[in-house]
Design goal:
alpha/beta; Transcription Regulator spoIIAA; 5-stranded mixed β-barrel; 16 helices; disordered N terminus; binds S-adenosyl-L-homocysteine; binds iron/sulfur cluster; binds FE3-S4 cluster
């Protein structure tokens, strides 16, 4: 009895506990960090499992149909928890919530609070209000408050430089879930980066849907993305700067040159191709063609020869013929991407491409094209990775290897996952000799001589 009493009195029993499940891209990962920071600011603590939480949150994604269905399955599980413990609060944030808005409540009556990506800060308002009757928050407000983030890793941080997207890619749901593009003020961003550096952060990843369009909307003074890169590079303590995603149409020479000139800017550019056929790129409204994309790649190779280039590709866009698809294979072959995320086209509600009824690619054909694409992506990725064998790379250690806890895992400046033997601790930057390479991972051993000399 006495033991039970003591347990009830420990702070973790008294404080309310939250659990967040995150779906989708780095933006969502970072929004979840901000939700966690905010919740801890109002006295909540993180629960290890959903079953122990007083507040169950989902930060949702809607980029492809699969993302929707995965989340709906999770929500079903939360509803079962709520049946057993009716006092539990269930919240749904993110892009899926934004895309269905108040329908969340009619479809899933057990949800207590729903909010879009621009309304993360409203969650605290809801939780601290007197009445907890179901409410939804779906306005776009530009950047939603400078919330403290609870970082997943000590030395790595995300910094959101803009919200929304002004592009109009015909397949994409993001402009409708994240609203118009708004850049965060230059000075506020630098202040955030300086705070992070003072807090021990070594690697910063700048986030936005179209990062290299940053600053054009700022007033009175317009800013350029390359200016931001320079300013972040100049901050003492920041060893690595990354960004995602740039748009090929805005990939100007000043940004590429920054990779050659700025010591902290990593030798990795994620440049989403989407399709190799200019005809399909036009139908996708990507605003560049195959030649322009290849020209950007040539410029990168000219100024930063060792730069890793990765990409996103969609197969089976409506109207994509075998000849169009072959052009995608040709570009993949020619560029030799270090890696690629490949997706089967998924029609999204409210998008232009979802309305197309002609030239739809049958499912089996999409799957078959995907297999052929993955084969070329992996073969070229494997070939590209061989250039690292025999070299000693700087690796930022993330922790033990997921497959073999006696080994360590980290990332090279090229964005490559490195699996190695050594003595390093998470957060350290060490030199690793690369002994072999597959398309996904480099294998190596820590250069202990370098450690002894330091
Ligand atoms: N803003 C980023 C990417 C956002 S979404 C950019 O423009 O590059 C991430 C990737 O998901 C996209 O690059 C695209 O390849 C893929 N994607 C987006 N909508 C899709 C859809 N309807 N079907 C399949 N893949 C999609
Ligand atoms: Fe979507 Fe295109 Fe904007 Fe990327 S640039 S988020 S693909 S609309
Ligand atoms: Fe990201 Fe998914 Fe939204 S990819 S921007 S969380 S639709």
């Amino acid at each position: 009895m006495a033991l039970r009493f003591v347990r009830l009195m420990t702070p973790s029993r008294i404080q309310k506990r939250y659990h967040v499940t995150t779906f989708g891209c780095q933006m969502n990962e970072h929004d979840s960090e901000r939700m966690k920071g905010m919740l801890e600011g109002i006295g909540y603590v993180e629960a290890a499992e959903q079953a122990e939480a007083d507040l169950i949150l989902f930060n949702t994604c809607s980029i492809r149909e699969k993302a929707d269905s995965r989340f709906v399955a999770h929500l079903g599980h939360a509803s079962a928890v709520k049946k057993q413990r009716p006092e539990v609060l269930i919240g749904v944030g993110g892009c899926w919530a934004q895309s269905v808005k108040d329908e969340v409540f009619s479809q899933f009556p057990f949800v207590d609070v729903a909010f879009g990506p621009g309304q993360v800060h409203k969650l605290a308002e809801f939780l601290t209000s007197d009445s907890l009757t179901a409410q939804g928050y779906f306005e776009f407000e530009g950047f939603a408050g400078d919330l403290p983030a609870k970082r997943a890793r000590e030395v790595q941080a995300w910094v959101q430089i803009s919200v929304g997207c002004n592009m109009n890619c015909s397949y994409c749901i993001v402009p409708s879930t994240r609203g118009r593009e708004v850049s965060r003020p230059f000075e506020a961003l630098l202040a955030e980066c300086e705070r992070l550096a003072a807090d021990g952060v070594k690697e910063i990843t700048l986030l936005g849907q179209n990062v290299n369009a940053y600053g054009r909307d700022l007033r009175p003074e317009r800013r350029q993305f390359s200016e931001l890169l320079r300013a972040v590079d100049a901050i003492e303590g920041i060893d690595r700067v990354r960004y995602t995603s740039p748009h090929p149409k805005d990939m100007r020479e000043d940004v590429i040159l920054a990779h050659a000139e700025l010591p902290s800017l990593c030798e990795h550019i994620h440049l989403p191709l989407q399709a190799g056929s200019s005809r399909i790129l036009k139908a996708m409204k990507r605003t560049y063609n195959r030649e322009r994309f290849m020209d950007r790649v040539a410029l990168i190779r000219e100024h930063v020869p060792d730069c890793a280039i990765t990409t996103d590709i969609i197969v089976g866009f409506p109207g994509e013929t075998e000849a169009d698809f072959r052009e995608t294979l040709e570009v993949v072959e020619e560029v030799g991407f270090d890696g690629a995320f490949t997706f089967v086209f998924s029609p999204r509600r409210g998008t232009e491409a979802a309305e197309i009824t002609e030239g739809l690619v049958p499912h089996e054909e999409k799957v078959e094209r995907m297999q052929r694409l993955v084969e070329v992506v992996q073969r070229r990725g494997h070939e590209r990775a061989q250039r690292f064998v025999g070299r000693t790379l700087e690796v930022l250690v993330e922790g033990p290897s997921r497959t073999d806890p006696t080994r360590l895992r980290g990332r090279s400046r090229h964005g490559k996952a490195v699996n190695f033997t050594g003595l390093a601790l998470p957060g350290e930057t060490v030199r690793v000799e690369i002994l072999s390479a597959s398309s996904q991972t480099l294998m190596g051993e820590e250069s202990l001589l370098a450690r002894a000399l330091v």
